[in-house]
Specification:
The chain is mainly α. The chain is 73% helix and 1% strand. Strands 1-2 form a two-stranded antiparallel ribbon. The longest helix has 39 residues, at 102-140.
């Protein structure tokens, strides 16, 4: 019966066309964000010197930090500063510069790569300061509060001896964990496909036929399995599309680096790699979509009209989105679709 349900609700031209359109819309939406907020406007306008220079330097100095890279970076910074004094501000690009300009190279070294290396090198000191402060708090509260002792002991153990050995291009990762438009598209697809799951049977009178045939349980089971598989595959399809488009526009690298190698997530309580963070993000999205799928299936059992079940599902989806803007993080299950807050705090 599962094959029949798949043919009836998924393998339809309207569903396939809608999926393709939403995948294209997702690309367009991220390009819009990249254009307005991540330097895309300058690239589209032809001002690519800085972005191209940054890409070249990340190829050379990004990834695992070594003593050799540190010495090379120091030497190149001195050279860039010397050439800036020699040539000053020039109007036409010159050979021998990453950006084509002495000022651009000096700015990239001083404002991008030196701070990134300093963050990685000194993170060990920073995390141990947090760990030591929490340990001292645990000692102080020993006579007053068992809760504070347990909390600070946990913090101390979480942050002790953390190291960052990678120079990571963080803007892509920040965008990836913050991006939630694709999850909104998945919600719309789930409503479009699943809202008639039960109501269409009642609208056509097929529910009585199923009951009289003695296959009611099998039919319900196949519909619920269909809903589960659909929510899983839609989540995975859009999740990997997010990774591909964000990697193409903003860059995703250093999957083996700890998540706190990205400075925005320096206080992340989880000692996991960026690859493991992706897994956590995917599972979180799937949990949200599974919850919403359950609600759609429940609402679909109420009416004999597919339009009514669709309207009810859409209303609940809109309520999900609105509540995610006002509810505190601890109560907002929809907030799991973007894990940046979880990783950041």
């Amino acid at each position: 019966m599962l094959k029949y349900e798949i043919k009836k609700y998924i393998l339809k031209p309207s569903v396939i066309l809608c999926l393709i359109l939403f995948l294209l819309l997702n690309i367009g939406k991220y390009f819009e964000l990249f254009y307005h907020f991540d330097g895309g406007r300058a690239i589209v306008s032809g001002y690519t010197a800085l972005s191209e220079g940054e890409s070249k330097l990340y190829e050379k100095y990004g990834g695992l930090i070594t003593d050799e890279k540190i010495e090379m970076l120091k030497a190149e910074l001195k050279t860039a500063e010397a050439k800036l004094k020699e040539y000053g501000i020039i109007e036409e690009p010159m050979e021998g510069f990453y950006t084509g300009y002495p000022y651009g190279d000096a700015e990239l070294f001083k404002n991008t790569f030196i701070p990134a290396y300093e963050y990685a090198i000194f993170y060990f000191r920073y995390s141990n300061e947090i760990s030591e402060a929490a340990r001292q708090n645990a000692v102080y509260y020993a006579e007053f509060s068992d809760y504070e002792v347990r909390k600070n002991t946990l913090i101390s153990s979480l942050y002790k001896n953390r190291r960052v050995d990678y120079c990571v291009k963080g803007n892509g990762w920040s965008a990836f964990f913050d991006y939630k438009f694709s999850s909104l598209l998945v919600i719309f697809l789930l409503i479009f496909i699943l809202s008639p799951l039960f109501s269409s049977e009642r609208a056509g009178g097929f529910d009585r036929l199923i009951i009289s045939s003695g296959k009611r349980k099998a039919a319900i089971r196949s519909k619920l399995i269909l809903a589960l598989l659909l929510s899983f595959f839609l989540t995975i399809i859009f999740f990997f599309e997010d990774m591909l488009i964000i990697d193409a526009f903003s860059g995703l690298d250093c999957f083996n680096a700890p998540i706190y190698a990205v400075s925005e997530f320096q206080n992340c309580p989880f000692d996991i790699t960026l690859f493991e963070s992706c897994v956590v993000s995917a599972v979180s999205r799937f949990i949200v979509m599974l919850c919403f799928t359950s609600i759609i299936c429940f609402l679909s059992t109420f009416g004999k009209n597919t339009a009514v079940s669709g309207l009810l599902s859409f209303s609940v989806g809109a309520l999900f989105v609105l509540l995610s803007e006002v509810l505190p993080q601890s109560l907002d299950i929809a907030g799991l679709v973007y894990t940046s807050d979880v990783f950041r705090e």
